[in-house]
Amino acid sequence: MTVARSHTERAVPHHVGLPAAAGTPGRWTMDPRTAVALLLAASITIMAPGGLWFVPAALVVGVLLAVTERAWRRAVVIPVAALAAAAANYLLPLAAPWPVLGIVAITAGFVLRLIAIGGIAAHLARTVSPTRLTAALRAARVPSAFTVSGAVLLRFMPTIIAETAAVWDAMRLRGLGGVGGMLRHPLLAIEYFTVPLMASSLRSAEDLSASALLRGLGARKRPTAMHPPRFGRADLAVVAVVAVLIATTVVWRGAL
Amino acid sequence: MTIDSTAQPRLDVKMSPRDLINIGIFAALYLATVGVLNALEFIGPLATLVSIVVSIIAGGVPFMLFLTRVKHAGMVTVFAVIVNAFMLLIGSPAIALVLGVLLALVAEALLWLGRYRSRKLSVVAYAVFSMWFAGLFLPMFYAREDYLSGEYMQSMGQEYRDALDAFLSPGVLAAFDLSTFLFGLIGGVLGLRLLDKHFRKAGIA
């Protein structure tokens, strides 16, 4: 548990100074249910046929969320990356009529959609702690089999990512890593990568599950939340902004 | 045989908190394994296909290790639901979730037929489960126009569009989708081999 905690905090550097931002929701924090609904709506619309039209709206939402969170770097990275992907998508095929460029352009169109969704997903990942997310999902009547295992999944992810980086570094040190090694001996590379990852992750998993069980995860009794999820004015503001953006997109699409 | 180190699995669906924690941990391990190797896809379009093949094969290792911890029916289905829900949140098409859950039910049925102990059926079950990767490409069938008829494609001339259309023909895509099953079989066998070679010896299988 202690191991996992330190990794989480390392992954969220700008929260170390203000633990309140991740733990206790302020008056202007979105309810996690709104955040999840927003992300699902964005993901489903953008990946559906014709979803490219909604990419600008999702990008605006992503940048606004980054600004409210004071994540200035993300507020700049999202539009820049999106512009680069859009440029590759629309301008590259005009440069020369090679099929390879066409495929790169299609991939860029896909990446553009992913950036639009990723902006909103990054906000969710940075601001909603697994505890609040579980409380919100419980309030939304999601069966406990999914909330408990899903919470463990989210809680454990940072630990595994740190372990992955360590294993990857160790492989590179021995000259086994990198794309070259992967292509020369794919099965061996998979073995060298997965076996240490599983072994070390499962060791910290033991601690995590012991600690979670002691604190009553999955107990028969319905747990109460320290900060029960409530819809507030932040949710109203988000709904209003999203409604305006959707209306703008529909009008813009009709005008073209 | 896969499960021989643990007690006979019970065939009911009463999962204990420890089972749910195990599902979460192995789902995270599976996603990390698949996700890291999938990051190779940003090298280029051909690498996308290669990275998916590598991911499917590598994913067999955490999945097979997960099966040794399965003690109740339904655990594989819950595993698939949270893996696919996570994928949906980070931008896979909604239809992939539907496909993933259906495939997981089939995989669960196969495992149940082998009473969660058959090695052969567990390999086949992994292969069925990993066909959810095909869901990521399903939009190429029902939303082809989106991909192939944008303004940039119009400017490329008919000949070029036909070439691309032919290259990404439904036949090629279907063959790729079905090949996920084949790579799933390889991944399942690799997972079992590593289970015997390393994890059982280390006492974590």
Pair with the biggest interface:
A-B, 74 and 68 residues
List the domain count of chain B as a whole number.
1
- Catalogue the unreliable spans of chain B: 1-6
Question: What is the averaged pLDDT score of chain B?
Answer: 80
**How many distinct beta strands of chain B?**
0
- Which ranges of chain A are low-confidence, i.e. pLDDT below 50, for 5 or more consecutive residues? 1-23
* Overall geometric form of chain A: flat
Give, in order, the helices and strands of chain A. HHHHHHHHHHH
Radius of gyration of chain B: 19 Å
| Average of per-residue pLDDT values of chain A | 81
Give a verbal description of the structure.
The complex is a heterodimer of chains A (256) and B (205). Chain A has eleven helices and no strands. Chain A is mainly alpha-helical. Mean pLDDT of chain A is 81; it is low at 1-23. Chain B is mainly alpha-helical. Helices cover 72% and strands 0% of the residues of chain B. In chain B, helix 4 (94-113) packs antiparallel against helix 5. Chain B is elongated and about 60 Å long. The termini of chain B are close together. Residues 1-6 of chain B have low confidence and may be disordered. Chains A and B meet through helix 3, helix 5, helix 6, helix 8 and helix 9 of A and helix 1, helix 2, helix 3, helix 7 and helix 8 of B.
